[in-house]
UniProtKB/TrEMBL annotation:
Entries under InterPro entries matching the protein: FAD-bd (IPR002938), FAD/NAD-bd_sf (IPR036188), Geranylgeranyl_reductase (IPR050407)
NCBIfam families: PRK11445.1
Entry-linked Pfam families: FAD_binding_3
Chain ranges of the FAD-binding domain: 113-165
Molecular function GO terms recorded: FAD binding
Stretch forming the signal peptide: none
Family, similarity comment: Belongs to the CbrA family.
Lineage, opening ranks: Bacteria, Pseudomonadati, Pseudomonadota, Gammaproteobacteria, Orbales
Record's protein name: Protein CbrA
Amino acid sequence: MPDYDIAIIGLGPAGSTLARLLNKRFKVIALDKKQSFGTEGFQKPCGGLLALDAQKAFIRFNLNLPKFILSDPQIFSVKTVDLESSIIRNYQRPYVNLNRHQFDLWLKTLIPGTVEVHHDTTCKKLEKTAQGYQVTFEENGEIKVITARYLIGADGANSLVRRTFYPDHEIRKYLAIQQWFQEDHATPFYSCIFDSSITPCYAWSISKDKSFIIGGAFEMKEANQKFEQLKHKLTRHQFKFGTLEKTEKCTVLCPSKFSDFICGDQNIFLIGEAAGFISASSLEGFSYSFDSAEILSGILNDNLNDPNKAYQKKTLKLRLKLWTKIIKANILTSPLLRKLIMMSRVSHVSISSGNE
Ligand SMILES: Cc1cc2nc3c(=O)[nH]c(=O)nc-3n(C[C@H](O)[C@H](O)[C@H](O)COP(=O)(O)OP(=O)(O)OC[C@H]3O[C@@H](n4cnc5c(N)ncnc54)[C@H](O)[C@@H]3O)c2cc1C
């Protein structure tokens, strides 16, 4: 008999949600690189904007956001900058501005005590056994080994679960770079920046707690050089880069075809970004992490006969929605189509003169 029914690797939004929703009859172990509190250790680089679909998940979960995870200020529009055509438009967006690390830590506190959580722990190796899976992890400098019947890959873009069991499954990926500067703009703002000579995806800026974050997703090989070019071009559009506070880098997935999404098989389940569940057009991923975790919890709690088949079936709608985001991304990153959309002024909200 395996030691545990379920082993969850990674407690980001996807893993924490699954751990919270699983029936208490399961014996569950959950491993996560992040510490349980404070600002030391691993932190996921992120924009920390909670979009409408993610807010909808909180309604379903009957959960409210505590004040301490909110960032200042709350902003209601995104300045969209097309560096190729020099067109700028403002689009209304009802994002909630969050402190991403505090958000992650708070989600972990909602996991019931029946789940055995190991913080500050890194999963090192995964192997298939006759009755399930063997998980080798490092905690406090010690190597430990456990076995579990079901293995959940909730370990994000660079998922060890996906790389170990599906090594040939390549999903398009970029290097995300973010730099935090002291905020020097009179009125903080969000922006979304397009320039096909710099990135085939997009770049962004976010104001958060007196910091100005500039970030982008770049082709791996030229990422640093393209990021510098981006900042240089933006200074011509009144972007100000004050004192540098920190630089963050990580892989971000950007699915390019329907077959990029991968659900798992043989009692392995991938949820959240590990499964490629992230929007190709906005890189918004929270809602898909919550939705996939919720779907999987329902399947495991109901003890269905073929849970992998059920997960494949029940995530079809989510995967089709993500596929429409690939089409949207292809439109938005086409210089001509984007220029036509922006020139139409549809949904643009102009800033009254005197307030600019
Ligand atoms: C720069 C950037 C900005 C983004 N901005 C936004 C945004 O504003 N809004 C939005 O909705 N989405 C945003 N996203 C996407 C979003 O961050 C992800 O889609 C989301 O975090 C995915 O959640 P997850 O739980 O699947 O994975 P993650 O959040 O990546 O969580 C996985 C967790 O697994 C743990 N882990 C990984 N490997 C191991 C291991 N070997 N052993 C133990 N633990 C492990 C880590 O602690 C990690 O926190 C952004 C992404 C990037 C890169």
